[in-house]
Fold:
Amino acid sequence: MKRMHVFVSGRVQGVFFRAHTRETALSLKLTGWVRNTDDGRVEAVFEGKDEDVEIMMEWCKKGPPYSIVKHVDARKELPTGEFRDFQITY
Structure:
């Protein structure tokens, strides 16, 4: 199990970044959440199998169509198993 906490910078709000993140995370059977931050970034926590989290991290570097990802700040955390699914939070 692996857990990553990420902040994605660039044109990532208003381009369905959160919705696509949720779809991708669910397809990889990851748990966690994603949300917009007040400073224009997107923040997310991904938890799941190591290889699936790594696939998600690569996806975050590109994002969905119409987004422009400039930077991904990621830090590894200890997995907690606290999540049941992957949700968009507000």
Residues 50-62 form the longest helix (13 residues).
